[in-house]
Amino acid sequence: MPKITKIVKLPANPPKYTESKVLVYIDGQRCTLVRERTWQAMNLKVGDSIDCDELKKRENFHWKNEYSKKDKNGKNAWDKEKVRLSKVRSLINGIDTRIEAEIVGFGADSTDMIPEHPKESGKPDIEVYLRDTRAVLIYVEVTGTEVMRGDSYWIRPDKLEYAKAHPDQDVWFILHYAKPSEKYVFIKPIPGKKYTSVQKVINRSTEYYVEFSDEDASDFERFKGHLVQLLSKLD
Q1: Contact call for residues 106 and 195 (beta carbons, < 8 A)
Q2: Which superkingdom does the taxonomy of this entry point to (predicted)?
Q3: Which pLDDT tens digit goes with each residue over 196-205?
Q4: Domain range 77-110+118-233, its CATH number among 3.40.1350.10, 3.40.50.300, 3.10.290.10, 1.10.1240.10
């Protein structure tokens, strides 16, 4: 079985290398670069058995593999995400009978780990369209966690980059938390604003998020009012 024979830590060197990485050699041959922030969670060291293809897969699909891990109740992150999607979809569909919220995101309505990445990172999970014409009114990215961490709301930078790259689309973020009490948070990114991401450690892996506060968020009534206003323009 192939083994890790050498590990070389490489510091960030912008603009080409924006973050620290680890160069891994297997059986004396250069294999691949691994992000230091994901390497720390792989629990691998010199002498451990692994082939190059497997290491590349672990790096490429690190977060998908993490989300596939089951908790003590036998549920993984995809199971919990499906619950969030269903709740948000029902919430939106209850606003007006003229609209329909449809789950369209890459693998968004599946609990299976899909071993590939979407063609466009950050594309929203839900399209809200008019039932009679199927014209899309808004796009909704659903996120959140079962238990809210801290007192801020976390959104991945690639999700915000999608909204920035598609100014013609009315993109909203709806965060759902199940505990300690059920909570919905509505966030509309500000066009042209530069958001700064921070590092968050989750199960020994480090991920980047943009933090939002209550001052950045809207409640359900404001979100509902936005949709109703869009509908009124069509009357």
Answers
A1: no
A2: Bacteria
A3: 999 898 878 8
A4: 3.40.1350.10
